[in-house]
């Protein structure tokens, strides 16, 4: 019984760790090729997008053995984020805020997972828009707490996420996008886990 309570308490963290392990396996198995250099070997953290891991064929033309692992990693990542959004709503009194965060957040993660399909670009557009709304609402509620570190982290997360979206939608500074993708994911992971533990604490 106690072990189940511990697992329930750390479900979001467990899902995120599991997704990272699956993504690392995918990165290790990716044959190679990027839009910067189609003939490169392996996964280039500076020039490859995570979406390159989802394709049946790697950019260098070889069968992509990373595909299964990356899709599984994306599933658990989106599931963990969706669970976080649902759990966060239990910490705020506003019914309207609960509805926005829960439904916009969960829906954004559904579309985020669908980026593994050929409709990647459309799914990214919808998911990113809904996710930015969700993070914005969460940050607003964080400003009503005494957790100054979470307030700062929320603003940083918003700024980096908006900048990445700006690059994606405008194609300005597009060479930075693969690297910004990793930075944005890292800051969002930090934000989610920090709120998950520090706010409840």
Entry keywords:
69% helix; mainly alpha
Describe the structure.
α4 runs antiparallel to α5 (120-142) and α6 packs antiparallel against α7 (177-199). The chain has seven helices and no strands. It is mainly α and 201 residues long. It has helices spanning 2-9, 11-29, 67-89, 95-113, 120-142, 148-170, 177-199.
Succession of helices and strands: HHHHHHH
Ends apart, CA distance between termini: 22 Å
Could you give a short account of the major beta sheet?
Answer: none
Helix content: 55-70%
Number of strands: 0
**Shape designation:** globular
Q: Specify the number of helices.
A: 7
Uncertain regions spanning at least 5 consecutive residues: none
SSE layout:
Blueprint: H1 2-9, H2 11-29, H3 67-89, H4 95-113, H5 120-142, H6 148-170, H7 177-199
Q: Brief overview, please?
A:
Helix content is 69%, strand content 0%. The chain has helices at 2-9, 11-29, 67-89, 95-113, 120-142, 148-170, 177-199.
């Amino acid at each position: 019984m106690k072990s189940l309570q511990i697992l329930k308490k750390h479900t979001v963290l467990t899902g995120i760790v599991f997704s990272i392990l699956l993504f690392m396996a995918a990165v290790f198995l990716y044959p190679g090729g990027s839009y910067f250099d189609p003939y490169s070997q392996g996964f280039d953290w500076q020039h490859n997008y995570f979406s390159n891991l989802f394709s049946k064929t790697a950019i260098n033309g070889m069968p992509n053995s990373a595909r299964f692992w990356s899709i599984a990693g994306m599933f658990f990542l989106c599931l963990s984020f969706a669970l976080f959004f649902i759990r966060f709503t239990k910490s705020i009194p506003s019914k309207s805020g609960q509805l926005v965060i829960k439904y916009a957040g969960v829906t954004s993660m559904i579309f985020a997972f669908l980026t593994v399909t050929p409709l990647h670009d459309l799914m990214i557009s919808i998911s990113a828009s809904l996710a930015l709304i969700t993070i914005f609402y969460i940050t607003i509620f964080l400003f009503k707490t005494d957790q100054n570190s979470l307030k700062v982290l929320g603003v940083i997360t918003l700024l980096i996420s908006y900048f990445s979206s700006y690059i994606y939608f405008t194609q300005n500074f597009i060479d930075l996008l693969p690297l910004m993708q990793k930075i944005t994911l890292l800051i969002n992971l930090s934000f989610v886990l920090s709120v998950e533990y520090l706010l409840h604490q």
